[in-house]
Amino acid sequence: MIHQISLVCFCVVNIFMFFGDAGAKVPAVIVFGDSTVDAGNNNYIKTLAKSNYLPYGRDFPGGKPTGRFCNGRLVTDFISEAFGLKQTIPAYLDPAYGIEDFATGVAFASAATGYDNLTSNVLSVIPMWKELEYFKEYEKKLFRFMGKNNAKNMLREALYLISAGTNDFIENYYIIPAGRRTQFTVEEYSNYLVGNSESFIREIYNLGARKISLAGLPPIGCIPILRSLNIKGGGACRADCNKLARDFGRKLIALTAKLNKELTGIKILFLNVYNPALHVINNPHAYGIENVATACCYLCNRDSPFTCMDANTYAFWDAVHPTEKLYHIVADHLMKTTLAELV
Ligand SMILES: *[C@@H]1O[C@H](CO)[C@@H](O)[C@H](O)[C@H]1NC(C)=O
Fold first, then answer.
1. Which of 27, 92, 110, 163 is 20 to 30 A from 129 in CA distance terms?
2. Are 97 and 89 in contact (CB under 8 A)?
3. Would you say residue 23 has pLDDT above 70?
4. Which residues lie below 8 Å from residue 184, measured CB to CB, with a gap of 6+?
5. In the prediction, which pLDDT does 12 show?
6. Is 326 exposed, middle or buried (0-12, 13-18, 19+ CB in 10 A)?
7. How is the chain split into domains, by residue range?
8. Protein residue closest via CA to atom 13 of ligand 1
């Protein structure tokens, strides 16, 4: 009898804790940035930076291409699921979704964008300032949908995730001949981008964001396109590009420390995606991965005859972007480390 009573009490307490917790934790994941986190916004703008065709998305639920630059889901989708929210975060511009869907997570990200306005111009994609404009529009819709107070609470407790910077360096700084290289040293350009990142964070803070996660750069020297062009280096990762990614990450860490001190009530977490991704690249077999040097679908399109059979044995899906497998590993790592305190 005593056992039964204590069991009942135990269950009641657990249920209470479960529901009590649910309200206080992360009610939505709100995403800004580039192709690492774009869930398909570029499908609805005029640009060449699109991936809404097979075999992109072939391992996504339903096997459909969504505009994610991946065979399946992205880090942000796995993070959303880990917080008990949706399995996939919808793109804000996708007319198939409405404010009732976006209320628990939304992506404003646009592939090929960057912290620098000129980067988004290269392929005519959505600049970061415009992502912010969409966010303001979203806030207004949210006020109407759930009432101003509820919406403000939700926006305060939500997790914001920002992932950008790769295109600024690779596309705008290194590839475009008349790009930023003619105006800035790498060091100056890094500082310029970090300054833009800071302004962006201050803007979303002023709009009510408090839990912000800022992703660093992945080991960009290891993306297949840079490896395949590294003929002198025997196809190895480009050490200089990886160093650039680490240096940029250190500047973002300093930025998060500064803003955590200065802005009342803010919690900014730096997401180190570099270390877990490089660990996979250096120890693929520990993760069941066979191939880290080349992509499953190198110049990825419908007619590409060389697409691999099983993307789960690859770290990279196309010449630039990771597979769902690598994204899943990185998301699991982040949930166990930096993001654990929000669960
Ligand atoms: C980018 O462009 C927008 C719109 O013209 C402008 O408001 C913003 O200040 C620009 N950002 C930077 C860092 O130049």
1. 27
2. no
3. no
4. 173, 192
5. 42
6. buried
7. 24-342
8. 196
182 or 136, greater pLDDT? 136
Q: Confirm if 287 and 332 have CB atoms less than 8 A apart.
A: no
- Return the closest-CA partner of residue 284 out of 326, 337, 320, 318: 326
- Structure confidence by residue, pLDDT tens digits, 239-284: 999 999 999 999 999 999 999 999 999 999 999 999 999 999 999 9
Pairwise CA distance, residues 47 & 185, whole Å: 29
Taking a C-beta distance cutoff of 8 angstroms, is the pair 130, 153 a contact? no
Phi and psi torsions of 85, nearest 5°: -100, -160
Task: Calculate how far, in angstroms, residue 129's C-alpha sits from the geometric centre of ligand 1.
Answer: 7
CATH number for 24-342 (one of 3.30.565.10, 3.40.50.300, 3.40.50.1110, 3.40.50.2000): it is 3.40.50.1110
Spatial separation of the C-alpha atoms in residues 311 and 295, rounded to whole Å: 9
pLDDT tens digits, 47-67: 999 999 999 999 999 999 999
Question: What residues pair up with 322 in beta bridges, in sequence order?
Answer: 316
Under DSSP, is residue 91 helix (H, G, I), strand (E, B) or coil? strand
Which protein residue's CA is at the shortest distance from atom 10 of ligand 1?
117
Total-model pTM = 0.92
Does ligand 1 have an atom closer than 6 angstroms to the CB of 129?
yes
* Overall average pLDDT of the 17-41 stretch: 80
Asked if 246 and 278 touch (Cβ cutoff 8 Å), the reply is no
Active site residues: 35, 318, 321
| Residue 236 per-residue DSSP state | -
- Specify the DSSP element, H or E, that contains 244: helix 239-262
- Residue 154 and residue 238: Cα distance in Å, rounded? 42
- Residue 271 phi, psi dihedral angles, 5° rounding: -95, 110
Band of residue 304 on the pLDDT scale cut at 50, 70, 90: confident
Is 9's pLDDT higher than 90? no
CA distances from 98 to 102, 105, 162, 194 (A): 6, 11, 22, 33
The Cα–Cα gap between 330 and 343 comes to 17
Cα separation, 270 vs 338, whole angstroms: 8
Residue nearest to atom 11 of ligand 1 (CA): 117
